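Usage

Read records sequentially. Each one opens with the input sequence:
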Amino acid sequence: MASNFASPVSPIGLAGARPEERATFSWSDTYQRYSYFALVGLVALLVYSYWNMLALTAPFWDNAQYSHGYLVPFIALYVMWAMRPNPEAQEPPEGAQEATFLGLMPAFQFWTVTAGASLAALVAGYFLKIPLLQGVGLAAVCLSTMAYVLIGQPFQRVSAAERWIGLAMLLAAYGARLWASSIYMDPLDRYSFLLAMLGVFVMVGGWGLLKWAGPAVGFLFFMYPLPSAFEQSFLLYLQKLAAVASEVVLTILSQPVVRQGNKIIVDGIPLEVAEACSGLRMVTIFGGFAVAVALLIKRPWWDRVIILLSALPIALIVNITRIVATALLYRLFPEGETIHQLIHDYAGLAMMPIAMGLLYLELKILSSLTQEEGGIEHGHGGLAGQFGAPPVRGT
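and closes with the structure output:
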């Protein structure tokens, strides 16, 4: 049984297009059906071919510095979900027909079955301490969720030029893999996976698909550790900056502070600004979060740029605030290793909520300065309706 979706979408993948410019998706359309399975299948093959790279990257996610790596694919899938041009496929208006998988079962039921089985494998692998089963479960959850997001989204005819460009990107990615293996450059191998993914999306869906799905693929950049050479130099810079800035703030607060390298001594109590306190972890985690916010908010492009540029200062401010607060509490409770450990740990847990609060405050200020023109509907698929959106005016 073929299923046509009641709410049409733009043939170039943009929400909010005129009705005469829109197209519908149907499993009875051979091109649409083949494109859907080609994309899901090629991504699955890509994950399989890069499995050794992913397996070598996974241990970094057990490190506190990059523990957010496991969450990045799911955030990327949410970005893809929010930016999809035809949200009515999974969220039909009241009375409209629900999207189905191959016309056989409701799309949500399809996702529940496949993702549920994959999640069971992931949990079993975790508790049984079988890394392979855990990895397969995680990959299957992501692939099944991507397959669900793509249900009902349009696959338009792709030109020969787009096919060749996508194939060239794919071949370039595998060429980079071979070169990376010959010179033992793991970062190049990791980043080639992103290029290969983008190439597959271009080859199957062209630029129309890449416009709304490409940002989600690019977001996977944040699941990788930074290149070791850059990480070490950047970490040392942040470590020194945190120590110097904390000394300045404590001096302004009239605290008896002396700095010796990366060690701050407040009233005779030493406080080491170690590598873990450099703020690098906060920069990487909050940087990824800020990119996701910039992609999803329905604001003018300059608001998004401001959000991106403010991510690093906010992360540094929060880290310095943590060090200063810890120093003050250490002075208030000068004795007791247990109390000092509790202060250190809880101050670290408070960093992300504070950073998110500052980002929320920034968004409120920006929304009071600019707004979208009223009376124009942009669609509701995240930024899907923002490509080619009407201009905004200052107020």
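Summary fields computed downstream for this record:
- DSSP finds twelve helices and seven strands in the chain.
- The beta strands are 100-101, 105-106, 257-260, 263-266, 269-272, 370-372, 392-394.
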